[in-house]
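Give me structure tokens for this 160-residue protein.
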Amino acid sequence: MKHITLCAESNDGVNIIFENLKTAMENMVRELPINNKELLILKSIMDSEDITSAEISEMFSVSKAAVSQFVSSLENRGYLKRRLSDKDRRRIYFDITDTGRELVRMTDEYIAGSINIVKENLGEKDYKTMTELLKKTTKILAEISGDKRYIPASGAANIK
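Here you go.
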């Protein structure tokens, strides 16, 4: 709470919004069997045909050792599996399992349900205004920071 109070005194509330959004997302996945980073890694693997640990490391700005731990944990729980490249046996790719796909689907539904509650409480007009402003803010912040993970086409960002 002290952090939020300091933010409120130092600016117009943007930090409060981002901090609360981050906390809300963390709380949403807290009840799930995986954490935020693991979910993002699973989604990345699901969206990519051939993805390596080095690419995941770069994508999420985490060390290769951390990616190795995340991947091992996800593999041990049956959410993904490793696959050797047909062209270069030194390259290891990751594939999401049916169990992992189901977990991502469940998680997406859970998060969408939570977002719908926000939407219902704000009303259509305010919700649309909020999302447009958050997209613009995220894009500006990504440009300022040089963050290459921003995805302009979808209007979303992979936020840590």
